[in-house]
Amino acid sequence: MNINVLITCLGLLVGISVHATTDKHFIIPKEQFREGVLIKNDKSCLAQEGKSLLSSIPKFPLESNTLYWRHKDNPREYNWFFGTTRIDCFGKLKAFNLKKNNLTAFEASYMRFYGTARAKSYQDEADLYFDSEYLYSQRVSTLYYMSNGKLKKLESEPLPGVLKVETTLSDYSFIVDGYNYGPAKKIFPLSPGLFYGTLVANGYLPYVEGALIVSGKETILKPTWVGIFKNHKKIPTSITEEKIKSTASLEEVEALYDVFIEELHQLPGEVFVDRFDSVYPKPKQFFFRLDDSEIYNKYLELFKIQREQAKVLWNESKLTVVKASYEALRSKLDSLEQLPLRIMLFPDSSRVFLNPVSAKPVDSINVQSVDSVALKLDTADSLQQEKNDSSISAKRPLKKEIELVFKGPKNRFDVIWRGPIPLVFGDSLVSFLNRRDPSLKVFLSLTENKPLWIQEEGLVKSRHHYRYIQIDFEYMDVTYPGSGAFILPPYIASNQEVQDWLLHKDMVVPPDSLFKDSIIPVKPVEKKVEPIVEPQDEEPELVKEDVNERLVKDSKKGDYIKIDSASFIFKEMVVYLSPYSINATEITQGHFARIMATLDSTEMIENHSSFKDPDKPVQNITWLDAKKFCEILGGSLPTEAQWEYAARTGGIQKNIWMTDKDPKPETYAIYKDNSYKKKKKDPLYGPQKVGSKKANKWGLYDVHGNVAEWVLDKYTILPYKKGKSNPKGPRFGSSKVIKGGSWKTKEKNLDLKAQDREDPRFWADDLGFRCAYPRQKGL
What we know:
Elements lengths: L2 H22 L8 E2 L3 E3 L5 E2 L4 E3 L12 E8 L2 E9 L1 H4 L3 E4 L7 H6 L16 E4 L3 E4 L4 E6 L2 E6 L5 E5 L7 E4 L2 E2 L5 E5 L2 E8 L6 E7 L4 E4 L19 H6 L3 H16 L10 H4 L13 H26 L1 H18 L3 E4 L4 E8 L23 H9 L1 H4 L4 E9 L8 E6 L8 H6 L5 E7 L5 E5 L2 E6 L3 E8 L2 E4 L3 E3 L2 H4 L2 H9 L42 H4 E4 L3 E6 L2 E5 L2 E5 L2 E4 L5 H8 L26 H10 L7 H9 L59 E8 L19 E5 L16 E3 L8 E2 L3 E3 L5
Parallel strand pairs: 1-6, 12-18, 34-37
Antiparallel strand pairs: 2-4, 3-6, 5-6, 5-8, 7-9, 8-9, 10-11, 12-15, 13-14, 13-16, 16-17, 19-23, 20-21, 21-22, 22-28, 23-26, 24-25, 26-27, 29-30, 30-33, 31-32, 33-38, 34-35, 35-36
C-alpha cells in the first residue's frame, strides 16, 4: 500500500476518534434525564393545569401540538417536561428552525447548546424548548453547538404562530393536506401566513376554515358548525316502516312501493337546496401580501370542493326517512319474492286443437319443440278439414291437445299453457273450464314469487310472472299434474331478466309467432332497437361501422372516437343519445403530463400513479381531478349511458367477446387472471399500456379491465326517474359511478352493464378515466 495513502487513512481515523471524543462532551447522556421530578410551573412557557410539572424521559417522535421544556438543574441532571404553549411567554422566545440547520428533533433534544462560542462544555443553556420543527431559547438569539469537532452556529428567525380552536365540540377533525390534527385545541408550530384545512364532525357539514397566522401570536379560530339534521326538515313519505311491516302479501307491498316512488318523483328540485346557501359558511376574505394570492386561490378551490360535498350530504340527510322506508320496502319485497308460489287461477279462455305427435315426450318446464303447423279449433268443420289434409297427416299422426290462456288481474299471469289433455277428463275438460265448474280447480306453480317489473322513467307500469314450472288440475280433491309447455308473450320473454332466467333453466324463448297460429322454437337473439326521434330534431343518423371513419387524432384531446346520435336499451329502457365523442383509450400518463405542462402551477393536477409509464393509464386519481382534467380538454367525464353505449357498441351484451367464435376474455381485457394473479415483480402485474388488447368494433380499447373508469353520474340506492334523452343519472347521491372493472377484477365481474361506486375523493391504483366531448351532428 502506498505510504501516503496509509498516512492519510490513519489521519482520518485519528480525526474521527478525536471528533467523537470531543463531541461526547457536548451530548447529554440519556441517563442524565430524571423522571418523576416535580417543579413549580411559574417560570416556564408551558400551559399546564396545576401549579407543578412532573418530569419524564424524552420519547420520540415528538408529538404534534406539544411544546417540550428541557430544564437543567446542574451539569449532570436534566428534566424533561411537556404541555401546550402559554402565549404570553411563547411570544418572547427566539426560534431556530431545525430542518434548515440539518438537525432532527431527536438529535437536538440530546445536544448541548450555548449562548456564546467561548462557553465551556458544561456551560450550556439551562432552559430550552422543543417541538417537532423548532428549537426555542428564552435568552439568546444565537446558539452554538458542537458537531464533528466543529462549533456550528444557529441564527434565530421569526417565530411560528399558534392557532387556538375555540369550540364546544370535543370530537372533530381538522384535516390539512391529508394530515389529521384531530380535535386539537391548539395547533402549532405554524408558519406565518394563511393556514386552512377541512373541519369534519359527525352530524355536521364539512367545510374549509382558514385563519391568518401571525408570528409569535395566537390566532383564535371559532368554527361555524352547521348541523346536518338540525337546520332543515327531512323529506317525509306517507309510506312508513309501520305500514310496510303490517303488509302480508307481495301485492300489498308492491302497491306501497308504487305510491312511494310516485311521491319521490313528484318532489320538486328546490326541496334539495332550500336554505343550504343561507346556512352554509361563506369563504373568508383575507388581507395579505400579493405573493400570498396563490395559497388563497388554493383555499378557495378546496372550499368550493368541500361545499359541493356538503351540499350532497345536505341533500342525502333530507332523504333519511325516505331511505329508511325504501330499505324496508326492498327488504320486505326480497323476502316475499324468494318464496315459491302456487296459485289457483281459472284460464281466461281455453280451446282444443290438433297437434302432430312429438317424437320426444315433453314436460311442463320446456317450450314444446315441433314443426310449424296450423292450429285448428275443435269443431266439426275443423276436424273434417284436418282429416282431408293429407299433406299434414302424411307427415305425422295428430293428437288432441288443449291450450289454456291465462291473464289474471292486471295481466299479472299472462301466459299460455299447451299440453295433452289428462286422460281422466277426456273431451270434457274444456266444458268444465268454460262453465267454471267448482269441482275443477287449476293451479299454477312458480319457483319464486318474483314477477318481472316493466318500468318507464323509473315508474312501474306493470308486473308479470314468468317463473312457471308446473300446472295441476284438481278434481274431486284428486290432483292430476299436467305435462306440456308454458309459453311467454314476447313483451315478457324478450326482457333481459327473463332471458337470463330462461337460459339458466335451459329453456327456449318463443318468438312473436307463438301468439299467432304456429310454434317455432328459436334461440335467444340480440334485440334490435329502431332509432327514435329526438324532440324537435331530425331523425338520428345510423351508426357506421368503419372504425377509421370514427377515429380522430387530436394533439390536445388525444385519440377519440366519434359516436353518432342513436337510441339503445339502457337499464331496461330505450334512451336517446345526442352525438358525442369519447377517448379511444383511457387517459395515459404521457397525455396527462403534456396537458399539465401547459398549465399554470395553480391549475396543475399531480400524477399520483403507482405504475409509472407514459403509455399506461393514469391511476390513483379522484373523480374530482378526473373531471377537472376532462374540462381542461373541453369535455367532461362521460355519463354512464354514454360510456355504456360506446363500450357495448350499441348492443345488449354484457361483454364484447360473447359474439366471437372463440370467446376469450384475455383477447380484450387485462383482468385478474392475466394480471393481478401474477407476482408483483412480473411486468404483467398491474395496469398495462393502453391499447395492448383488442379494441371493440368501434375502436375503444380497455372497456373491460386495465383500470376501472370514473363516469359523471351520481350513485344512489333509491329508484330515480330516468330521462329518455341523454340521461345523466339521479339528482341525489354522494358517491360516483365506476364502470368497466380493472386489472384486479374477476372474469365473472367483467360486465359492461354493471356499476361500482366510490366517494369522489377516493383514489386507487386500479382506477382511472377517459373523457367525452360534445359534438354537432354530422361532424
